[in-house]
């Protein structure tokens, strides 16, 4: 199982490069990352992904590299948007890069070239620099600069979803070729059809899953809960295996909770990182909050054991499907706080 670490640059108070028409690097790189992940998930197998961020949060450069190193990633890609008056695409490795990093760069660059040609986007070539995330990471690492946000022609491309999608998929292909990921089996061209819900069934409508969808994004779109969505559709227990093109049932209204959820402020969330083997009041706070949003941990005993890890993992599968490790940290805390607030 290959480990892929994706680093969407900047975030939080650090907007990165800023262009006209409300273009922010920190937002664009998350879009590109999502297209990259969606393509990997739908096309390849035998890999797992960890990201620096999937929301508007900030980690220092050393934290990004440290996370990738401690996880033991097999490949690291940092995704960026350029600025400074130029035009075109370029990618980087560290000045004293290993041969493995140079090979990784060459493969990614080769996969990007067809997209550059199809959009008449200049190719600025393969480069090297003393960037911290390249210098501090232990595995083959590449940093991409998709276009110049302060160039009018490049900015127009950055507002073109088809271009962002094509580049994200090109990055994904580069990673897959470098890691020699096996392709998923081609679906049966004549599968046994799954009957759609009867139109006459009261209170039901349907939705066809698209690339990039998660249970959370679909639930938000229709103002329902993830739990209601899962209850209405057998086989949606694992959000990482959503089948593009599959039709699912959208239940009407929000599923009522078995009992009212007390206000979010009654569930203070601990800071820092908690993992299996930890214990104490902070773990109890986490257990109470997970129980409150129906990710049951059993008894609130203050022990971060197998059940608590499993509950955290199930929560991450639904709300943070590309950072599933069963470890409670800042991203899980922020998402859990948002879910508690929405339910209060």
From TrEMBL:
It comes from the Bacteria. PROSITE patterns: LYSM. It holds the Pfam family PG_binding_1. InterPro entries: LysM, LysM_dom_sf, MurNAc-LAA_cat, N-acetylmuramoyl_amidase_3, Peptidoglycan-bd-like, PGBD-like_sf, PGBDSf. Residues 186-205 are annotated as: Disordered. One of its GO terms (molecular function) is N-acetylmuramoyl-L-alanine amidase activity. Its EC number is 3.5.1.28. The keyword Hydrolase applies. One of its GO terms (cellular component) is outer membrane-bounded periplasmic space. Residues 205-250 form the LysM domain. The keyword Hydrolase applies. CDD domains: LysM, MurNAc-LAA. Keywords: Hydrolase. One of its GO terms (biological process) is peptidoglycan catabolic process. Residues 188-200 have a biased composition (Pro residues). PANTHER family: N-ACETYLMURAMOYL-L-ALANINE AMIDASE, N-ACETYLMURAMOYL-L-ALANINE AMIDASE AMIC. This is N-acetylmuramoyl-L-alanine amidase.
């Amino acid at each position: 199982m290959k480990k892929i670490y994706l680093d969407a640059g900047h975030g939080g108070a650090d907007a990165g490069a800023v262009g006209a028409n409300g273009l922010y690097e920190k937002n664009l790189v998350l879009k590109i990352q999502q297209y990259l992940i969606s393509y990997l998930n739908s096309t390849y197998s035998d890999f797992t992904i960890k990201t620096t961020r999937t929301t508007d949060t900030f980690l220092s450069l050393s934290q990004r590299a440290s996370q990738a190193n401690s996880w033991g990633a097999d490949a690291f890609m940092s995704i960026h948007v350029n600025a400074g008056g130029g035009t075109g695409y370029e990618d980087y490795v560290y000045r004293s890069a290993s041969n493995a990093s140079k090979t990784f760069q060459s493969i990614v660059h080769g996969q990007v070239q067809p997209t550059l040609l199809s959009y008449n986007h200049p190719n600025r070539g393969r480069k090297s620099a003393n960037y911290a995330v390249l210098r501090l990471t232990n595995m083959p690492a590449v940093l991409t600069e998709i276009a110049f946000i302060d160039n009018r022609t490049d900015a127009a491309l950055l507002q073109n979803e088809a271009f962002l999608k094509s580049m994200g998929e090109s990055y994904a292909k580069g990673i897959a070729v470098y890691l020699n990921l096996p392709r998923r089996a081609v679906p049966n061209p004549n599968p046994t059809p799954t009957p759609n819900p009867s139109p006459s069934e009261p209170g039901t409508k349907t939705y066809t899953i698209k690339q990039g969808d998660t249970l959370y994004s679909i639930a938000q779109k229709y103002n329902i809960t993830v739990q209601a969505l899962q209850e209405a559709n057998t086989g949606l227990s694992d959000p990482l295996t959503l089948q593009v093109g599959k039709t699912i049932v959208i239940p009407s209204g929000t599923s009522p909770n078995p009992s009212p959820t007390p206000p979010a402020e009654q569930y203070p969330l601990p800071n820092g990182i908690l993992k299996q083997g930890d214990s104490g009041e902070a773990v109890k706070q986490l257990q109470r909050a997970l129980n409150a949003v129906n990710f049951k941990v059993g008894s609130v005993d203050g022990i971060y054991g197998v059940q608590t890890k499993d509950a955290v993992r199930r929560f991450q599968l639904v709300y943070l499907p590309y950072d599933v490790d069963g470890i409670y940290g800042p991203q899980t805390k922020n998402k859990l706080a948002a879910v508690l607030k929405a339910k209060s």
